[in-house]
């Protein structure tokens, strides 16, 4: 099992080392640009309040972090965690003019923070890449304050048969599109496989509950192509 986890860590690192400078373009390819709408819905459901402290894990190039700051009128406190050093530096560069942000290069399974630190924990299109999802959920709960909330935006299972068929056909073309635009197909092949193998909405909800979250619920977006999961630390 440890060897499997080490292999996944190495694979994910290699994937994002390959695409870090084209990450935003990759999201456009994967979602036909709709990821911007999904992220707005994510922030809408998060509904952060002025002064909230958000931990954004697997922060990538900072889309959620930026939206959080704007929604709180830059009164919110923001900590970003990104396990990939190249992605971290890209995120820093992209958000350098948005005020004081605390940055950490760390895996989600071992966060460098004290218990009961954050009001909110977010992860957007990162959970399926974690080497140990259960451990990352335990860590999320640990660092949240009592009354804090975790939200996850992730590719999920489509609930409409026709839409699912259409999306499957499109998914098969994504590595070819990625290769044409970026010169590499392997990262996109990995990402498509990671979506196919990932938990469905109910399975992930049960994992939230098993790791101590209460009031767990989810909302499908675009027919279940992605879903937002929410859980509270009570």
From TrEMBL:
Record PANTHER family: 2-METHOXY-6-POLYPRENYL-1,4-BENZOQUINOL METHYLASE, MITOCHONDRIAL, METHYLTRANSFERASE
GO terms under biological process: methylation
Keyword Methyltransferase carried by entry: yes
NCBIfam families tied to this protein: MenG_MenH_UbiE, PRK00216.1-5
Name of this chain's protein: Uncharacterized protein
Stored Gene3D superfamilies: Vaccinia Virus protein VP39
Presence of the UniProt keyword Methyltransferase in the record: yes
InterPro entries: SAM-dependent_MTases_sf, UbiE/COQ5_MeTrFase, UbiE/COQ5_MeTrFase_CS
GO molecular function: 2-methoxy-6-polyprenyl-1,4-benzoquinol methyltransferase activity
Keyword entries, A-Z: Methyltransferase, S-adenosyl-L-methionine, Transferase
